[in-house]
Write a structure and sequence with these properties.
- This protein starts with 7 loop residues before the first helix and ends in a 14-residue tail after the last helix.
- Strand 6 and strand 7 (232-243) form a beta hairpin.
- It has a 4-stranded mixed sheet. Strands 2-3-7-6 form a 4-stranded antiparallel sheet, with no helix packed on it.
- 47% of the residues lie in helices and 13% in strands.
- It contains 13 helices and 8 strands.
- Residues 41, 43, 144-148, 153-154, 178-180, 232, 386, 389-390, 393, 395-396, 399, 411 line the site of flavin-adenine dinucleotide (FAD).
- Flavin-adenine dinucleotide binds at residues 41, 43, 144-148, 153-154, 178-180, 232, 386, 389-390, 393, 395-396, 399, 411.
């Protein structure tokens, strides 16, 4: 592709040509790449981690990865000096739309690309940028997120995992939970308390270390979910060594970095939101199809709910387009990302229930098969619940909307040291 600093529609035309010339024949048939489109956070049990891993290990995917890297289509939202294209939200939206349309995977560095990488770009030293960013870009470093703990999820500043400085390293001891992508990750970013005497939000550090289950004091216990998938795990640290040089933002200054990471996670970078939207639109079309198949499309109650769903998806698309336009005009996505997160996750919860209602009594029975099988609508219904929890629960989003967008009184807080 030539220089892409061109109007969006011209860029789209260039990208379509590039896809035609570069997508290896047969790649789209390897696996349904769209099924996992609404990553991150998707925990579909319909495609096992091993199916996905084997598709990623296939020579066709590897060839695609090589061509995308050559065209700088990996981490394209990163600034040009760090190997990206500096693409903004409209350009990233366009990229996701075109790959989705073609049924092709975006070579995605997942949490490295969308969370820890941008946080390093914002808060890291030159040395940290030079060491970590190229390794994310190449796929050598694959991250998981060690923030949540038992008792510290919404209230992240209360984390108890401790880290003590020992020369040029940190020794980390404690427990994390709900750690997604533990099967594919070889790196972890850990929120830990390095100064227990400091006030709650102070004294926290954002450490990066290798993720080596069974070694370096790291123990991993997978958690089986209601869908049957094992997408996340408990992670235990016992004197785990992390380099001091990998503390982003400086010792005791982890909270600022966490805020940036969470902002990126909720969709500030545009990636997740575009994909969520496309996945929701596709899913609704399939549900309308199911209603027809089951003869439920004439039922007024079902028609009313489907019309509601169509309206919601249309509103979500308009509201996302507005956000994209605001970002293009130079605004930073702020608390309004909470309205987006709340809208799609609560919508999905109701849609999952509607799907089972349309599927009828058969939806109560698991399909035959090994393990803990579910069909696609059972999966939708069950997975939808997790969307209202990860990246900040619905209640927390409502607090943010109330306090930061509507200017309502702040919720009472327990003073530091009195919990
Ligand atoms: C699919 C999935 C993947 C995840 N992946 C990761 C991961 O990779 N890494 C990671 O670190 N974490 C991960 N998480 C954890 C996730 O971030 C937490 O579950 C989430 O922040 C909520 O924390 P909690 O589970 O401790 O619930 P709690 O914070 O204990 O909340 C319990 C209930 O209290 C409510 N509540 C809490 N505080 C308030 C408040 N101030 N006002 C009103 N209501 C409140 C909550 O809404 C919720 O209903 C994942 C979670 C899920 C579901």
């Amino acid at each position: 592709m030539r220089s892409l600093d061109v109007p969006l529609e011209e860029l789209r035309a260039q990208l379509r040509d590039w896809i035609v010339e570069n997508a290896p024949a047969g790649l789209t048939e390897l696996i349904d790449w769209r099924l996992r489109a609404d990553l991150p956070g998707s925990v579909s049990s319909l495609q096992s981690e091993s199916e996905l891993a084997s598709a990623h290990g296939h020579p066709l995917f590897q060839e695609w990865e090589r061509r995308c890297a050559q065209a700088r289509l990996i981490c394209p939202a990163w600034p040009i000096e760090y190997g990206g294209r500096g693409w903004d939200a409209p350009q990233m939206t366009m990229l996701d739309e075109e790959f989705y349309r073609a049924g092709l995977p975006r070579v995605d560095r997942v949490q490295g690309e969308s969370m820890v990488g941008p946080s390093i770009i914002l808060h890291g030293t030159d040395e940290q940028k030079a060491y970590y960013l190229p390794r994310i870009l190449s796929g050598e470093h694959r991250y998981c997120q060690g923030f949540s703990e038992p008792g510290s999820g919404s209230d992240l500043a209360s984390v108890r995992t401790r880290a003590v400085v020992d020369g040029d390293r940190l020794l980390i001891t404690g427990q994390k939970v709900w750690t997604s992508r533990f099967t594919t990750a070889n790196m972890i970013f850990v929120l830990c308390r390095t100064d227990p005497a400091a006030k709650k939000h102070r004294g926290l550090s954002y450490a990066i270390t290798e993720f080596t289950p069974g070694r370096n004091g790291i123990e991993v216990r997978p958690i089986r979910q209601i869908t049957g998938a094992e997408e996340f795990a408990e992670v235990f640290f016992d004197g785990t060594v992390a380099p001091l040089s990998g503390v982003i933002g400086g010792l005791g200054r982890g909270w600022q970095v966490v805020q940036s990471t969470l902002g990126f996670e909720r969709g500030g970078a545009g990636r997740a939101t575009t994909m969520v939207l496309q996945a929701r639109e596709r899913e609704l079309d399939q549900l309308v199809e199911l209603a027809r198949e089951r003869g439920r499309h004439r039922d007024p109650a079902v028609r009313r709910e489907l019309a509601w769903a169509k309206t919601q998806v249309t509103i979500m698309r308009s509201s996302w387009q507005r956000t994209v336009a605001e970002v293009a005009a130079g605004d930073q996505p702020g608390p309004q990302m909470s309205t987006w997160k709340l809208a799609w996750s609560e919508y999905h919860l109701r849609l999952g229930a509607l799907a089972l209602e349309i599927a009828g009594p058969a939806a109560m029975v698991r399909p035959a098969g090994p393990g803990y099988a579910v069909d696609s609508w059972q999966d939708t219904f069950l997975v939808a619940h997790s969307g209202t929890i990860y990246a900040g629960t619905s209640e927390v989003q409502r607090n943010i909307i109330g306090e930061n967008l509507l200017g309502l009184p702040r919720e009472p807080r327990v003073p530091d040291g009195q919990q």
